[in-house]
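Review session, final week

We close the course with one last complete record, chosen because it touches almost every idea we covered. It is Isocitrate dehydrogenase, a protein from Dioscorea zingiberensis with 55 residues. Go through it on your own first, then we will talk.
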Amino acid sequence: MAISPLRFFSTAASAHPPISATLFPGDGIGPEIAESVKQEFNAAQVTIEWEEHFI
């Protein structure tokens, strides 16, 4: 039995409904970290609907 070295993954972001997430940036470095997190998900082509609350 041979195992193929080829693997296929679906990366189409549109194939999945957007994820809803709540984000509380906070204060201090929180807003910078929150923005970095949003950029990382965007770079990974993960569709997230952010609901931000500033406290």
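Two points worth writing down before the exam:
The two ends are 59 Å apart (CA to CA).
The chain has a mean pLDDT of 85.
Good luck, everyone.
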